[in-house]
Amino acid sequence: MRSRVRPGFTLIELLVVIAIIAILIGLLLPAVQKVREAAARAKCMNNLKQISLANMNYESSYGTFLPGLSRNGCCWGTWMIPIQPYMEQDALYKIYRGFGGEGYATLGAAPRYAAAPNNQISTTRLSTFTCPSDQPKNWNNGANTMHNYVLNAGNSNFYQVSTPVGCTGGSTVGANGCVTFGGAPFGWFEDPAALAAGGDSSPVDYTGGSPALGKMGKPRTIAGISDGTSNTLCVSEVIQGPRGGNDIRGFTWWGSGAGFVTYQTPNNSSATDVMTGGGCGPNSVPNFPCTSAPSTATLPRMQLARSRHSGGVNAALCDGSVRFVSNSVSLIAWRAAGTAQGGETLSIDN
Predict the structure, then answer these.
(1) Using an 8 Å Cβ cutoff, are 282 and 300 in contact?
(2) pLDDT given for residue 252 in this prediction
(3) Number of domains in the chain
(4) Are 77 and 101 spatial neighbours (Cβ–Cβ below 8 Å)?
(5) CA–CA separation, 297 vs 299, rounded Å?
(6) Which of 35, 188, 324, 348 has the highest count of CB atoms within 10 angstroms of its CB?
C-alpha cells in the first residue's frame, strides 16, 4: 500500500499565522509595559516613603529635620549623608569625613564629596535613592553616581526668598505675579549676601576661608512646619541628566542637585531648571529645559520636580504618606504644598 503524505502548510497559510502572532504581540506589549511601569512606580513610591520616614526618625534623634545641605552650601555634603544611618547604610555614613567642613582646622582641608575617603560614598549606587523608571547614570562620564530623589526647598527658589527676587505684594501661591517664600521643611542657600543685588554668579559657600563657618542649610524643627506634616511636601523626584553629558540634574551629592522647589508644576516642559554653578550639557533632556547661566532676579537658582513616569511625579509628604501628583495639578495647589508656613488650605489631591 502506498502511504498517504499529509499536505504541509501553504505559504499563504504560514504568512497568515505569522501575521496573527504579530498582531497578538502588538496587543500584548502595551499591557506588559503598563504592568512594568506600574511596578516601577510602586517601587519608586516605596523609596520615597522610606526617605520621608527616615527624616522623621532623624528628627526623633536630633530634634530637627535633616539639613537640606551642609552649612557651606556646596560640596561638603548634602542631606544624602546624615540620612544614611536611617536607611540601613550606617557603614557608609561612618566612612564620611568633614560633613559641612567639620574638622577643617585639624584636617587641613575638609575633603569634599569626590575626595578620599568620601568618594567611597559618592561613587556608590544606592538603589533606594534610584527610581526604577530612570536609567542609572554617573555624572559627566565620571565615577560619581546620580540619583532621583530630592528634598523640598520651598515654593520659590533655592535662595528661599520671593520670586522675582525683591518683589512685594504677592502671596505664597503667586498673587500679582509675586511668589512669596512661605517657609520650607529644609534649609538651602537662605538668601546669601551675594543675592542682595538681585542675582549672582554663584552663592558664597562659606565665610572666613573655612567651610565649617558657613551658615546655609539650617535644619528646621517640626514645630516650624505650621502647615502640618500632612500638608507639606518632604521629597519628590528629579530626572538623572542624559548619559554622556555634564547635565548635573540628579547629582544629589551637590547642593543644587539635592533639592527641588514647587515654583512650577511637575514635568513642566516650558519651565527651566536653573543649575547655576553646575552644567546642563549639550544633550539636555528634550522638553525639560535647563540652564547653567548665572541666576537672575526673575530666574533664580531652582530645580523642579520631574520624572520618567507617564503623567506625573511621585512625592512624599512630611508625615510619610506618598502621592502620585499629576502634571495637571493646579499650580496654586502645588505651590501651597511646597510651603511649610503658608497657611493655605489647598491640597494636591484635589
Answers:
(1) no
(2) 97
(3) 1
(4) no
(5) 6
(6) 188
Q: Report residue 326: phi and psi, to 5°.
A: -70, 150
Nearest-angstrom CA–CA distance, 18 and 328: 42
In a domain, 5, yes or no: no
The strand pairing partners of 260, in sequence order, are 152
- Is residue 350 domain-resident? no
Q: Specify if 347 maps to a domain.
A: no
Domain of 283 in residue numbering reads as: 12-338
What is the C-alpha to C-alpha distance for residues 244 and 142, in angstroms, rounded to an integer? 10
Give the three-state DSSP class for 234.
strand
Maximum separation of any 2 CA atoms in the chain, in Å? 107
Choice between 152 and 102, residue whose per-residue pLDDT is larger: 152
**First vs last C-alpha separation in the chain:** 82
The answer to whether the CB of 121 falls within 8 A of the CB of 129 is: no
Residue 267 makes CB contacts below 8 A (sequence gap 6+) with 288, 305, 306, 307, 312, 313, 327
Radius of gyration of the chain (CA): 24
Q: Which three cell numbers stand for residue 194?
A: 551675594
Query: Could you read off the pLDDT of 249-306 as tens digits, one per residue?
Result: 999 999 999 999 999 999 999 999 999 888 997 777 888 999 998 888 899 999 999 9
